Predict the 3D structure of the following.
Amino acid sequence: MSAPLVGIDLGTTHSVVAVYEDLPDGTRGPRVLADPLGHTLIPSVVAEAQDGTLLVGPAARERMTAHAASGIARFKTEMGSARGARLGGEDLDPVQLSSLVLRHLKGVAEQALGVDVPEAVVTVPAWFREPQRKATIQAGQLAGLEVRRVLHEPTAAAIAWGLHDPDSERTLAVLDLGGGTFDVTLLEVFDGVVEVLSTAGDTHLGGEDLTDAVVRRALEHMGITGEGLSPSQRGVLRHRCEQAKRRLSEAIGTQLQLPHPDGHDVAWTVSRAQLDGWIGGQLGRIRACVREALVQAKLRPGDVDDILLVGGATRTPAVRTVASELFARPARDDLDPDHVVALGAAVQAALLARDHGVRDVVVTDILPFSLGTSILRQYGEQVLRDHFDPVLHRGTTLPASRLVQYSTTSPQQDEVRIGVFQGEKRVASHNEKLGEVLVDGLPTHDDDTLEDLAVRFTHDTNGLLQVEATVVSTGATAQAVMQRAGHLGGTDLDAAVAALDRLKIEPAELLPNRFSLERAHRVYELIDGDHKEMLDPVLLRYEASLASGEPQAVASAREGLDKVVAALVERFDLDLDLRPLS
Amino acid sequence: MTPSPDDILACETPFALFGHAATERRALKRAYATLIKTYDPDSHPDVFTHIRALYEQARSGDTGAPVPEAPALRLVRDDDLPEEPSAEAPSETTPAEQLEEVMKEGDADRAIELLDAHDLDIRIASPGIWFASVAALADARTFALPAHTMQSWLDAIEQAPDGVPEPLLERIELLTTTGLAYQAARQDPQISPQLLEFLQHWGKGPMDVAGAFLELGEAMPDPEAAWEAHQALKEGHPALWFPYTLMANLVTREVDTFDESTSACLQGPPVQSWALGPTSTLRLLHRLAVTSRLSGTILMVLCALFYVVADAGFAGVCFMAATAYALVGAVALPMVDGRIERANQRIVHQMVSGARAEVRFPHEALDLVLAARSDAPQDRLLLWQKDPTTLMRVLTPAHLERIGARIAAEQAALHPSTEQAE
């Protein structure tokens, strides 16, 4: 069996891995892979256990729910920045943290498939800028995965949807409200072609922001600030608010117990209408993004045939209502919003691998941000510097190539530095600078003659941007390649790998053991004294068996512990799962 | 056969690459999809970029299509030429070229003149540009082409040679037919039978037909004929049945029969008239006004009799009060009726504008419609009482098709075919 190419949805709160393979019905298609615990939604969480071991995934989430300060989540929204956390004695940036999640997902895929998984297609929000995309690829590299393609999450969702009926002609709006980011992408599907028309989004708007809104109101209800709560209480408060928000997706009202600094719980009843009011600001931002995407695609709401909702936060009724109202269409819910992105990524992986199952499908993507250069412009007597001149406009279908002509500003000018920028701001330096091309040795002139330069921007589907400048009079050329892959090399890579190597990471095969332990700890903290005494000896036995390293002893002790924990969960009606388990 | 990369890169205009498909949106997409499946963005970036550039050019309306050459000129018969040459130099352009030129200039009146001026042979000989022009004109002028122009083009389409791309024909047929339906309804009610036939045939384009049907209903003086058209239409497409039933009743101003026919559509018990939404309050007022006028008049007569018989003073006061009561009813009644009429007209227009695109409705609307067809009469009634306007807004083609499919499935389940029964 050849090495499979998997699709990974590296999400803010949860990640999913899928593969394109033979399905039980005899066809080929994408399938979501589960970890040994049966989870398909792997929490994008890294936490430090009591013994200093780093946990990733479900065990980390268990640990962090009970000990909020012990780990970190939502680091995806900080991709491309240096903001990270100190865990396991090392300062880890978002790239390294993401690499730990990707390594975990790689392990999940390898365990499920029984073969090595060296390559993957990884999805990112469409609104990610170049540094964030590069950071994602670097995270893959650190995890031992070659990222063959960075795919936009909404595009992935549309691919998964489009595969159901590839020959129909539809215009789709994909609204992806994940844990921490929001994207809206308009696409056209016809005759097996999935074509992105426009995309817009907000990198700091997601389901977690909706939870934040509930948490703020909960604190107001108790008349306290968050500082009065211990880290553990804050974790519990957030968890309960999150659960309440989810329950309000099904019910019109719910009750929850809020942990008070004094130690007692405060009962609080919230209604769906209240929630809708609290998240009004976030809904407004969703509307603004949708309108922007429509303007970019030159479409009216009525031109959209279907709305596809992606991301768990789109289960919130107010979000669905906003989507339906904006497009005057009911939203489709025939694909699981949590899995659809990973499924689409797996299809894209199959496309790259030229799998025969997707021979008649073509996906075209667009440039999410304009690419251009900094120029000097003259208006009357005024000379305006640092003016951004887009060469490849946002929304251009990839691959794309465009030639523009510029001239020097003075006859005596013997070199030109062509800055390459990404963004939509009028002032070039306000955009993201990707690099520059130096053209030197220009002929100088004593008269008023200026040199003409032909500058070509070429952008391929893998994010590789080539900028080539030709001096028209001499034919001399200079070029630079701005490779998105921006692979870490030499000392950078060594340093990053060394930092990760110094960490003590829980092996994937021990995940069930660690998960049981962390869950038992969490339950222990939630139950009363008498029942604690019931759980304590079983937990002690399990911890001892783990220390002994005897597999049979561990298995036996874990079985006993799981039974007791399950009984206690039932007895206290504890709702421990943030997400449904598959 | 798929052209080679060199052939593609040598193409300088969309027409050179896509042929006649460049002039028609759907055919263009199909041709584009076929090409990029061979030359996808990953494996053939250069070829794909070129195909994409020409595709975008064609979509912007610049097809770069060459004008037909000699054959079109030769088809102009001698007796079509003016007997005396005009003072201007004789034009060497073909009819298609002339039309193209006029279209570019945006002179729609002149374009219509040209469209009318040439006989069927010429139209059939160079159909691409002519058909594209008539389609573009129909689009640009929102179906304001004269009915006879479209009718004659429809005739030409029916006799078009095999070489004309089918999608192009289909689009022109649709545009021309629906345009014709509009115009016919507006201009010439006498062609209604023909219109009915078109509506039956083209029932698959619900939004266009909805508009045409409204025009038809307004144009037809006889409500019975409108009803017949509606019946014919719903036979053509079951999904059109429910909303158009509502429309038919409103359009023909048979407001009083609305409840019965609606409930007939729902195959359930009569629905209260106040379920009509905007007219419900008005209907209450209507009843009050009628009651006031009637009871006031009766009281007035009784008081007068009592005054004459008993000569009681208070009877005179009562008479005055009853007169005022009856007068209020009599004055209010025509006002309320006028409001009812306008409200119903507003609903019709809302429905039609909704059908055409922009209406907002909650996503549970489809479920309401489907639930309205449930077997529990009480549920249906409750749904109508709850939000009748929601039901009336569900008029998008996608929904109609889904409803149609659902209805068909339900009917199939309720009435299995003979073969199945056997």
Summary: The interface with chain B takes residues 169, 190-193, 300-303, 305-306, 320-321, 324-325, 328-331, 351-352, 359-360, 362, 364, 397-401, 460-461 of chain A (CB under 8 Å). The first strand of chain A starts at residue 5 and ends at 10.
